[in-house]
Structures are given as C-alpha cells and as structure tokens.
C-alpha cells in the first residue's frame, strides 16, 4: 500500500526531527506524483494526504482538471513565463521562482484574476550546478527585494534542488547554507518577505535536509516507487 510507504517517510521525518530537536509538525511532506496516475493520488488522498507536487505545468493542469477532490498542488519544477497563466490559480505554492521577470508575470496574471496574492518560494542553486535552475546565493537578496515590491506575489521562503549524490551527507552543506541564507534575509525584515518555508530534501536526502531545518520535503520515489518515463 502506498500509504505504508508514506507513513515510513513520516516515521523517518519524525526520527530526524528528534535528532535535531525539532517538532515533526513543522515538516510538510509533499508527495511528488509526477508521471504517476490519478488512482495513486486518490489512494493517498483517501488516507488524508493533502500535499502533492508536480514538476510540469501540463501534467499539473491535467491532473487538476480531472480531480474533483481538494488537493494542495505544489509546482516544484521550472516554470516558463508563458505558462504561468495555466497554473497561477491552481496551485497552493510555486516553489521555483528564480527571476524577477517570472515573478512579474505571476503578478500580472494574479492581478488579472483578482487574486490577492500568489505564494512563492525563491529557488536558489547552492551547488552552482549548470544543469539546474535557481539563483546564485549571492544574487538572491537583491532579487528578493525586487520581487517583494510586487503586489500580488508573496515570498514565503526558499527552495533548492540539491545535487544527486550517493551519500546524502554530501548535501548537508548546501542545506545548511540555505538555512543560513534564510536567517540572514529574515533578519533584514524586508516588507512582504516571509522566510518561514524551506523546501529542500528529496527521497535520497530528506532526512539530512530535515536535520538542517527543512520545513517542506519533496518525496517522489520514496512514496510512489521508481518512475517510468517511457510510458
Ligand atoms: C522529481 C522531483 C522530486 C522528487 O524526487 P525523488 O527523488 O523521486 O524523491 C523533488 N523535487 C523536484 C523539483 C523534482 O522534480
């Protein structure tokens, strides 16, 4: 049963919280359902799982339209400016804002729909991987200041996709760096900037991420099993 795998992740989060002196209620597990069928989402939903993540706009939109029950959708993958309009009013949180240009488009589409604000995270690339999206840590603060000026966009924290490594300990430094950056930014008390969410940690490394302060982890394989991209 899928819920058993989900509960195993939950148990591991609880243990990681105990090691770090944290409250497990401060960690939200996002079930990353990309490539997985609606039936699997439904199965988890029936067991009271509410947060699901998708990395592609098209897939999120399709699933959103086919599902009639309430789900909190998280867009966790790269978002192109021209696709903002398809999801801006369908998601609980956009994790992957990495430019002022993109944030301005979100602001514009939200205003059009008379949405008060769209909650977003700022994606930062701590390992400086060329293959990954995200801001360089040193440019993050300035970009945040600019985005904070937008009326319909609300910054809620930071997100990172850490490198794929065999030993999750290798990513600890990047998780720690993100926590530190969020504290630094929080201490500056910018208007309209909230640093309460740290979205970091995937199947391979979420326990380390939780030890370092993650408040949202994004787990796909660890809940749904391996993905098959060929179907
Ligand atoms: C696919 C994906 C995940 C989940 O990856 P797993 O290793 O299967 O847990 C998390 N975050 C993002 C941005 C993803 O695209």
UniProtKB/TrEMBL annotation:
<dbReference type="GO" id="GO:0030170">
    <property type="term" value="F:pyridoxal phosphate binding"/>
</dbReference>
<dbReference type="InterPro" id="IPR001608">
    <property type="entry name" value="Ala_racemase_N"/>
</dbReference>
<comment type="function">
    <text>Pyridoxal 5'-phosphate (PLP)-binding protein, which is involved in PLP homeostasis.</text>
</comment>
<feature type="domain" description="Alanine racemase N-terminal">
    <location>
        <begin position="7"/>
        <end position="227"/>
    </location>
</feature>
<dbReference type="Pfam" id="PF01168">
    <property type="entry name" value="Ala_racemase_N"/>
</dbReference>
<keyword id="KW-0663">Pyridoxal phosphate</keyword>
<feature type="modified residue" description="N6-(pyridoxal phosphate)lysine">
    <location>
        <position position="34"/>
    </location>
</feature>
<comment type="similarity">
    <text>Belongs to the pyridoxal phosphate-binding protein YggS/PROSC family.</text>
</comment>
<dbReference type="InterPro" id="IPR011078">
    <property type="entry name" value="PyrdxlP_homeostasis"/>
</dbReference>
<dbReference type="InterPro" id="IPR029066">
    <property type="entry name" value="PLP-binding_barrel"/>
</dbReference>
<protein>
    <recommendedName>
        <fullName>Pyridoxal phosphate homeostasis protein</fullName>
    </recommendedName>
</protein>
